[in-house]
Specification:
With 344 residues, the chain is α/β, with parallel strands linked by helices. The chain is built from nine helices and 16 strands. Bound molecules: nicotinamide-adenine-dinucleotide and uridine-5'-diphosphate. Uridine-5'-diphosphate (UDP) binds next to α5 and β11.
Length: 344
Amino acid sequence: TINVVYLHQKSSKLGNQLNFKARKDMNGHVDDTRVLVAGGAGFIGSHLCDRLINEGHRVLCIDNLYTGRMDNVQHLLESPRFTYAIHDVTAPMSYDDISLIFNLACPASPIHYQKDAIYTTRTAVVGTLNLLELAKANHCPILQASTSEVYGDPLFHPQTEDYYGNVNPVGIRSCFDEGKRSSESLCMDYHRQYGVNVKVIRIFNTYGPRMAENDGRVVSNFITQALSGKDITIYGDGSQTRSFQYVDDLIEAMMRVVKTDNNFTGPVNLGNPNEITIKTLAEMVITLTHSHSQIISRPLPENDPRRRCPDISLAAQQLCGWKPNVNIAEGLSKTIEYFRKKCL
Ligand code: NAD
Ligand code: UDP
């Protein structure tokens, strides 16, 4: 049986009427609870669903496919422990028997989050509010996927969690940056006011297989351009830096975060502190793909942060010595392999 459920956005209460059969774990105990992954059909969300299913959990993936794709979770639909529901998180929801929530629902790439900036803010703020209400109703923990963008164009380097950031509140990136800052604030208030067990993670630039070809972010752009022999578009002079984390390292950290005790709320930085310039990234992609593409320059987008690098000491301390294991050459090679198969 293929476990797909289509819920209409306005009928989200249907969630209560779904027939989730009780299952027995290996010790014969009936476990009727499930992990809810909002944004589970996206790039990071689908890797998280894989990991949860592989570990034997039941997963309810909700997504409205705003930037995600069914392709990303198609292979999971055969599993009786995986259920997919179309749901826009800006609409309230009332699912029962939820043991843990991951909130990843939000467009993440600048071109997508700027396309309908008001909807981005609505998703980041109202969507998080709805999921916090769900966590409160189910008495379960919630992990909120925040972002290094809360630091804006940082004046301190590398960024530690106690840095309040340097964000333009009225710029073209503010729908995302301020939306995510508000979502962090909501999480902490649900924790203080209602005792909800919240875990806020600040994700730094993450890449890997299943990034969408039209995603617009730098890694997918450079790889698809290199593989198709098109010019590689560096915005500005390419001296701005980012620190790129391979998706498997992030998923491992997320699984560790949800196992921390109730007092640990974060925020905690999750990223790879290996900082490189965008120009270096372009050169690496050309080398690894053996491409003949030329590097060309395009205007730097407004408010594009100059530097970004996480301080991950808190993560190492709280997550049993977690640190990223996949270096950039290895991670890029796996991602190139994915796009090569997809583009051919
Ligand atoms: P993505 O665009 O691939 O995934 C986001 C998912 O959320 C998509 O499947 C999309 O359809 C879904 N979604 C968007 N709006 C929704 C709504 N209103 N209701 C239901 N579903 C909705 O992006 P990603 O890179 O996988 O990012 C996942 C999360 O991690 C996002 O919250 C993002 O802000 C955060 N994050 C990602 C990065 C990164 O580098 N990839 C960095 C920082 C933070
Ligand atoms: N960038 C680039 N060429 C591209 C896409 C992005 O030079 O085709 C730059 C972009 O201006 C930014 C960096 O790469 O300085 C990372 O951009 P991305 O959109 O991936 O993430 P973010 O800006 O959110 O860190």
